[in-house]
Amino acid sequence: MKEERSVGAVVFNGSDFLLLRYGYGHWDYVKGNIEPGEVKEETLMRELREETGILDGKIIPGFLEKIEYFYTRDGVKTHKEVVFLLLKVDTKDVKLSFEHTDYKWLSYSNALKQLTFDNAKEILKKAKAFLK
């Protein structure tokens, strides 16, 4: 079985959260696979830049959540582990990558409704509680 490790972020600006619509149609966070030689913070800042064009992200210390799941693509079963950090940005200008079809800045309650997967909703709930 294939193993993947990724880093994602709950990106926020003020009271709004950034969600991305992926090519498969689901709404989720900025995230991507850790490349050889990278630490999670480097991966996160690279993915933020590549997926949104945002350069000014600031990681909020103390927040780290992890999810694990399995998926199958092209007949290959993969175990994926994703760690999530909390990232504050000072802009709402987004330049989407080819990986995404849309983005939205949403209030907490609307972001909770928009997210596709339950584990992503749980991450948002934990991020909101951490920010209080």
Structure notes:
This protein has 132 residues and is α+β, with helices and mostly antiparallel strands. The protein has one domain: Nucleoside Triphosphate Pyrophosphohydrolase. Helix content is 26%, strand content 43%. The protein has 3 helices and 8 strands, in the order E-E-E-E-H-E-E-E-E-H-H. The protein has helices at 40-52, 108-114, 118-131, and strands spanning 2-13, 16-22, 27-28, 30-33, 58-59, 65-73, 76-88, 100-107. Strands 1, 2, 3, 4, 5, 6, 7 and 8 form an 8-stranded mixed sheet that branches. Helix 2 packs antiparallel against helix 3. It is globular and about 40 Å long. The mean pLDDT is 96.
Q: Name the CATH superfamily assignment.
A: Nucleoside Triphosphate Pyrophosphohydrolase
How many strands in all?
8
- Compressed to H and E, one letter per element, the order equals EEEEHEEEEHH
Distance between the termini: 40 Å
What class, by secondary structure content?
alpha+beta
Q: Which descriptor suits the 3D outline?
A: globular
